[in-house]
Amino acid sequence: SNKKITIAIDGYSSTGKSTVAKQLANYLGYIYVDSGAMYRAVTYFAMQNGFIDELHFNIEGLISKLNNIDISFKFNETLGFAEVYLNNENIEKAIRTLEVSNFVSKVATASEVREKLVQQQKYMGLNKGVVMDGRDIGTVVFPDAELKIFMTASAETRAKRRYHELLNRGDNVDYNDVLKNVVDRDYIDTNRADSPLVKAEDAIEIDNSNLSLEEQFQKILQLVTMTLEGFE
Ligand code: CDP
Ligand code: CDP
């Protein structure tokens, strides 16, 4: 069938959301959108423009400049997914540092920031055929998504995964700092007033603590196939 669906993948930090979302998008010929990259892009802009550092958190200043922030995605043939751009500068690598990770959840509590990004996310999903991962995709961005997945894994499992990822990138980080970041972000993301991280009522929860990337992909692909069948 040519029917296209919307797939919403939410969950805690470093549960493997973006990995499986990319796999699904490539398999189905859908667009993949990393909504977290958009919150990271805004945070990166704030850091570059002096609104945020270790001593200052000038969220009002950042909000007054939101119109100067243009976020876009361009497909990279070699990598096989779309990289994120801030005002036409490729920031795909720059936004993945532990520094950005340490500020992003606080930035993501601001309703003005969320409103801007959610509007763009809804627009990108207008024609369906999209896999989007984040924290509020099944609850706020695409409440009508045909398939919603909620990913979990223990904090230690997730911190270990993220720690190795950062080491492989060449970032010199401490495991305990990575674990603290994961735990702190879980707390801020689930406790914020605007669009907190919560499993949508109709989302399917998957704990992948003991699943390999391939096992997790196959499990979710099965759910996609079932959803597409029920749809025809
Ligand atoms: O990949 P990782 O788990 O490190 O996080 P991410 O998906 O890049 O998201 C970074 C942060 O952006 C999250 O911890 C949230 O604070 C925020 N975020 C959000 O509030 N809503 C989304 N839809 C996606 C991300
Ligand atoms: O997007 P999110 O932050 O949820 O996670 P990710 O960036 O897709 O995955 C974080 C890291 O965990 C990556 O290095 C994945 O390869 C790894 N991972 C894994 O080893 N096994 C899984 N079942 C899921 C993720």
UniProtKB/TrEMBL annotation:
Its EC number is 2.7.4.25. Its main location: cytoplasm. GO terms for molecular function: kinase activity. Residues 7-224 form the Cytidylate kinase domain. It is found in: Cytoplasm. It comes from the Bacteria. The keyword Kinase applies. Transmembrane segments: none annotated. The keyword Protease does not apply. ATP binds at residues 11-19. Keywords: ATP-binding, Cytoplasm, Kinase, Nucleotide-binding, Transferase. CDD domains: CMPK. It catalyses: CMP + ATP = CDP + ADP; dCMP + ATP = dCDP + ADP. Belongs to the cytidylate kinase family. Type 1 subfamily. PANTHER family: CYTIDYLATE KINASE (PTHR21299:SF2), CYTIDYLATE KINASE/PANTOATE-BETA-ALANINE LIGASE (PTHR21299). This is Cytidylate kinase. It comes from Hyunsoonleella aestuarii. The lineage of its organism: Bacteria, Pseudomonadati, Bacteroidota, Flavobacteriia, Flavobacteriales.
